[in-house]
Amino acid sequence: MSGGGPVPVRPQAQSPVVLEPPTERDGSVAVRTRLDITKIATEPALRKQRDLLLLAWEKLQYGNPDAGDPKTFFQIGGIHGWPYVPYNKDGSLDGPQMGYCWHGAQLFPTWHRPYVALFEQELRRWATSIAAEYTGPDAADYVKAAEDLRLPYWNWLENNSQVPTIITDSQVTVNAPTGQRTINPNPLSTFVFPTPPLGAGYTQLPNTPNANDPPPATPRSSTARQPLSGGIPTMNSDLAADFRTQTSNWRLMLLYRYQPNQYSFFADHSPPSPAPIRNPVFDTSLEGLHDLVHVNVGGIKGHMSYPQVAGMDPIFWFHHCQVDRLLSQWQASHPLCFVQNVRETPDGGTFLTGGAPVRTSATYP
Predict the structure, then answer these.
(1) CATH for the 39-333 domain, from 3.40.50.720, 2.30.30.100, 1.10.10.60, 1.10.1280.10
(2) Residue 70 has what pLDDT?
(3) In what residue span(s) does the Tyrosinase copper-binding domain sit (predicted)?
(4) Which of 56, 154, 198, 261 could disulfide-pair with 193, CB 3.0 to 4.6 Å?
(5) d(Cα 297, Cα 315) in Å, to the nearest integer?
(6) Whole-angstrom Cα distance, residue 164 to residue 235?
(7) How far apart are CA 206 and CA 254, in angstroms?
(8) What is the DSSP string of 234-297?
(9) How far apart are CA 79 and CA 316, in angstroms?
(10) How far apart (Å, rounded) are the C-alpha atoms in residues 237 and 10?
(11) For 323, what's the count of Cα atoms within 13 Å in the CB-facing half-sphere?
């Protein structure tokens, strides 16, 4: 499967995109554990979750013929950056030249939390639909696997920081409702853009180019990792080398993690002054470590290196699920301490104006 059709522009009229908690069959909230992507990829007991993860990801990317639907992979990925238009045509913006993503401020981790949850919700929606199509003795097991499936995280603190092969293999084989099939390209390895080709050029979209665009490059038909530096082998070697050299900084991060009233120093790479002693070469904050992964995965002119298009690379979601996991660990060790009362000046982002019609409900204020 691959993308096709005109460049999608977000529709002018849509129902609200609602983020809802997953539920059990009796209507109660369904709490499940997010798993390591390596575990899902390798453990036989989780084989059905692996099948559904890959099949649902493929459907999220290409299964909806309406590429302008706000719940497609392209549209959700575009919230982070391109295209520079209001998501779902909802609300007024303070300017058209940035994506919604929040960086360089203490809201960095918490802004990305509902963003990851939205992606997870739509991934699970497809998994549930696909699971209902299985027949035979395994049908009930696939339904149960869909109920248990959550967005996995890539734990780049383990396995020498190598990217799991399920995310890099060019093609994958799954047990689908119709039988065994091979998916090519592997939906976790790349995203094929709608036509005409989009990528690090993105010159076909409105409001571009501008000062916030990545360096000019030949437009690509799909996302790329380390495209000018050797691809996957270079990505893995760069990750391993950088993580090895940052051992002392990991210790500092752990120290900050367990200090009281240090959320700003833990959360982002631009803490308020005066700051504690910090390594001038590498930022020990959660966002600083996050930056390291982005740059080493994307490389020169790879999509993960540029916030404007990073959300289009499938690995972005496993990476940010790990970031959210580390935030949860910080919260567990600091139950009475969260954001600090400081005036923020983020690195960039598009913001809703004060009068924007953000919808709420009695259940979800």
Answers:
(1) 1.10.1280.10
(2) 84
(3) 103-120, 313-324
(4) 198
(5) 9
(6) 12
(7) 43
(8) HHHHHHHHHHHHTHHHHHHHHHHHTSTT-HHHHH-SSPPSSP----SSS--SHHHHHHHHHHHH
(9) 13
(10) 38
(11) 30
Angle between helices 47-62 and 108-131 (to 10 degrees): 100
Digit-coded pLDDT (tens) for 177-200: 999 999 999 999 999 877 644 444
Domain boundaries of the chain, sorted by first residue: 39-333
Extract the residue ranges of the chain whose pLDDT is less than 70.
Answer: 1-14, 65, 67, 83-86, 89-99, 104-105, 195-220, 246-284, 338-365
Dist. CA 310–CA 326, nearest whole Å: 20
For 194-250, how does the pLDDT look when each residue is reduced to its tens digit (9 = 90+)? 764 444 444 334 334 444 444 444 455 788 888 888 888 888 888 888 877 766 566
pLDDT tens digit string along 30-41?
A: 889 999 999 999
